[in-house]
Amino acid sequence: MSESLTRKERSMFGWRMHLGVIWPTPLPGWIVQEFHEVVQDGVDITAVTLTIRQLGVKDMEEALAGIEQAAEQLASFEVDLIYFMGIPLLTLKGAGFDREVIARIQKASGLPASTGITGVMQAFKKLKLQRLIMATPFEDEVNQRIKDFFKPEGFDIVHMKGLQIRRNVEFRKLPVPIQYKFTREVFRESPVEPDGIYIPCQGWGSIHNIQHLENDLGKPVITGLNAMIWYTMQMMGIREPVRGFGRLLESLE
After folding, report:
1. Domain covering 119-225, topology
2. Over residues 172-176, mean pLDDT
3. Angle value at C-alpha 222, between 90 and 145, nearest 5 degrees
4. Spatial distance between the Cα atoms of 27 and 155, rounded to a whole number of angstroms
5. Which residues, including other chains, have CB under 8 Å from residue 73's CB and lie 6 or more apart?
């Protein structure tokens, strides 16, 4: 944060962007910490959470029923825009479901809105990524839905592997280096050279892994968190590159 800011300016949260996020599960404090490590001065976040406990269809459908209430709650906190996270939920009903979710949020809140998978696809387009490998903590069924969602949108997951975890609480128990090591393993196994690397789910790993992976594997890395930060900055017209967290955030201009 710039030392040139006055005490009054420091006390004003979100004076450049106050981002409202709907999270599928209770939000770990370290995600908020990493968000603030990355974003520019004057950017803040307020989050509400849904009820999902594990990635079964019943749990996800019940959580999706809470979108409107969550959007109304965020609007009452005077956020500038609302972003819906949770790739497994957004891919549950197939390609194009993100547009339905955006419409529901906009209607309930009266605010601009987007989703995690929308931001990810915009990031793919920005960096001209069509063929990707995907490393996840998810079960194969969830991974296949993600791959099937991307295909008609013009993105091909050429190789993928998951850690076969269903319960969200188990994601958070994974040591941070596991994300790096597992992603490197999936990348090296790919029978096709990809344009980039996609790592869904904010419940594991760290945004600090992105630069290490890009340096070591030579490919751009897209995650839910760097895509969220980049895309919402774009939506709010903030054109200040962020260094040290990969090519996507460096591209802000």
Report:
1. Rossmann fold (3.40.50)
2. 87
3. 30
4. 29
5. 48
Three-class DSSP category at 19: strand
Give the start-to-end residue ranges of the domains of the chain.
Answer: 7-116, 119-225
Q: Do domains 7-116 and 119-225 have the same CATH topology?
A: yes
Query: How far is CA 59 from its chain centroid?
Result: 20
Q: Shortest CA distance to 198 belongs to which of 234, 145, 159?
A: 159
Q: Can you name the residues that pair with 18 across neighbouring β-strands?
A: 44
Distances (CA, A) of 237 to 229, 230, 233: 12, 11, 6
The pLDDT, as a whole number, for residue 12 is: 59
Quick check: 172 and 203 in contact, CB under 8 A?
yes
Can you state the percent helix, strand and coil of the chain, rounding each to 5? Answer: 45, 15, 35
3-state secondary structure 127-153: CCCCEEEEEECCCHHHHHHHHHHHHHH
Alpha carbon separation from 157 to 16, 49, 148 (Å, rounded): 36, 29, 9
End-to-end CA distance of the chain: 19
Measured at the CA of 150, the angle between CA 181 and CA 89, to 5 degrees, comes to: 80
Cβ contact 89:67 at 8 Å:
no
Q: For 7-116, CATH number?
A: 3.40.50.12500
- pTM for the whole structure: 0.92
Residue 167, beta-bridge partner list: 54
Region 143-172: mean pLDDT is 93
Rounded to an integer, what is the distance from CA 65 to the centroid of its chain?
Answer: 21
**Predicted confidence (pLDDT) per residue in 126-149, tens digit:** 999 999 999 999 999 999 999 999
